[in-house]
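question for whoever is on the cluster today: can someone run the full assembly for these? two chains, 225 residues total. i dont have access anymore since they changed the login thing
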Amino acid sequence: GAGVSQTPSNKVTEKGKYVELRCDPISGHTALYWYRQSLGQGPEFLIYFQGTGAADDSGLPNDRFFAVRPEGSVSTLKIQRTERGDSAVYLCASSLMAGGSNYGYTFGSGTRLTVV
Amino acid sequence: AQRVTQPEKLLSVFKGAPVELKCNYSYSGSPELFWYVQYSRQRLQLLLRHISRESIKGFTADLNKGETSFHLKKPFAQEEDSAMYYCALKPTGGFKTIFGAGTRLFVKA
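^ ran it for u. tokens below:
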């Protein structure tokens, strides 16, 4: 597609439930990133994929969070046993070069997750 | 530790006035630095990067390694510049980008 697509745009879920957030990057972008943005804060790194593999998952807050990118394009961020503190905007970004070096990221419009 | 600090949460200026959005970083090596912008109801987008030394929409930013700063400047602010601005740092050769908390710029008519 022309840009990075994220679905759903909004998700409201009950505490304890499981959610999946989807990201469809720009075609041909091998690098894909997930960030989380809480109110009043800048985006916070979660995980980085180069191709199908998670090259750096050091930003995932705990083992309730997991992400996959099985075919090297679409990625899914999965959150188990959601907690109210997980409420945030989850941003996906892709870039043409590994690390986005020199070119920066192209961001999606985000998924606003609200845990009630 | 790598850190990006944007000391102002909100900056309000009159149209036509100069604007400077401050950014300081903490990193022991040579970073790649960026400014991202988010206009109302739009997605976060890259504004400029220090490597290219470019001017985008009249904005420029100069890397000052001595002061570890990368302030964003524009000589004459326009109402359409009103947005949220984020300074970001990526370690050279690294993968993750670290963002500041952002500064909201409000340009008054």
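summary bc i know u wont read the tokens: The interface with chain B takes residues 31, 33, 35, 40-45, 48, 50, 55-56, 58-59, 91, 98-110 of chain A (CB under 8 Å). The radius of gyration of chain A is 13 Å.
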